[in-house]
Amino acid sequence: xxxxxxxxxxxxxxxxxxxxxxxxxxxxxxxxxxxxxxxxxxxxxxxxxxxxxxxxxxxxxxxxxxxxxxxxxxxxxxxxxxxxxxxxxxxxxxxxxxxxxxxxxxxxxxxxxxxxxxxxxxxxxxxxxxxxxxxxxxxxxxxxxxxxxx
Length: 150
Hints:
Helices cover 44% and strands 16% of the residues. It is an alpha/beta fold.
């Protein structure tokens, strides 16, 4: 099992949680981004830099993900692709995307895109907070307990 991280927009606090989990659980974590991402020295953690461009990091992750892998992303289309490929997708706020909820999330995302495209100010996500951090850490721990190498 491998953990892939859509790292361009992933909060640093989530990366830190993942770094600790990688070393503690001996799980491979790969951060994919179109910029250089600094990682701690660990045989379990690596960073892959891809060229800039629309969805380049997402496409790299989608090409590499294997059934059973975990992808950390807030990108709903990427999460849908991961699920289709037999992987698991967890957003940085601690919500798992599943076969049962991904279509609803895609529909809502597309609807909000249409509203923004027509000039409606839909606001944005709420600021990332301590509750989000805890929810992510708890879901990651549960996942690693069920599927991890420990």
